[in-house]
Amino acid sequence: FLPHLVASMEDVEETYIMVKPDGVQRGLVGEMISRFEKKGFKLTGLKLFQCPQELAEEHYKDLKSKSFFPKLISYITSGPVVCMAWEGVGVVASARKLIGATNPLQAEPGTIRGDLAVQTGRNVIHGSDSPDNGKREIVIPFLCNKNILSVYDYSRFLICLL
Ligand code: IDP
Ligand code: MG
């Protein structure tokens, strides 16, 4: 029984989920994937990626005028991210609920940010805020053929940090 296969196709949405560099470095990727899998959503794309600055700026273009924008871009480009596409009925809003509030101190216990993070500027995960933004954001990493890391590249990257 796969919940995401039961509904009619027109109800099925896709969202972009990204484990941010702190989530990857802290070894929380499996924990986060597990929460979406257990909920019943379907993983349709996965990529370990070193996000170039111009793609980080494209992804967060709606926040360009914010004072924290430069720090946000250096955070997102500071190390590998895990980019994912998740599919299912109501997945966009449901993923936002599973993720919790932007400020992890205000995120409810039981949510990803509520359980795993403390600072807004290190809030471990991204999830699209609308179906249209989901479609827009997914293509940014998945159409880029540069900066793809294999697990082997990543373990070398970690060794370089030591
Ligand atoms: P969201 O990730 O919950 O959708 P947004 O308002 O879209 O939150 O902001 C995008 C990201 O920018 C946040 O997840 C967080 O990493 C960062 N951010 C948002 N507000 C602040 C802030 O006031 N200071 C520092 N970073 C922020
Ligand atoms: Mg947002």
Automatic annotation (TrEMBL):
Enumerate the cofactors the protein uses. Answer: Mg(2+)
What EC number(s) does the entry state? 2.7.4.6
Question: Domain Nucleoside diphosphate kinase-like, which positions?
Answer: 12-150
Residues reported to bind ATP:
20, 68, 96, 102, 113, 123
Q: Which UniProt keywords are present, listed alphabetically?
A: ATP-binding, Kinase, Nucleotide-binding, Transferase
Write down what this protein is called: Nucleoside diphosphate kinase
The record places the active site at: 126
Q: Which family does it belong to?
A: Belongs to the NDK family.
What molecular functions are annotated in GO for this chain? ATP binding; nucleoside diphosphate kinase activity
- What EC class does the entry list? transferase
Instruction: Report which superkingdom the organism of origin falls in.
Output: Eukaryota
Asked if the record carries the keyword Kinase, the reply is yes
One annotated GO biological process? UTP biosynthetic process
Reaction(s) catalysed (UniProt annotation): a ribonucleoside 5'-diphosphate + ATP = a ribonucleoside 5'-triphosphate + ADP; a 2'-deoxyribonucleoside 5'-diphosphate + ATP = a 2'-deoxyribonucleoside 5'-triphosphate + ADP
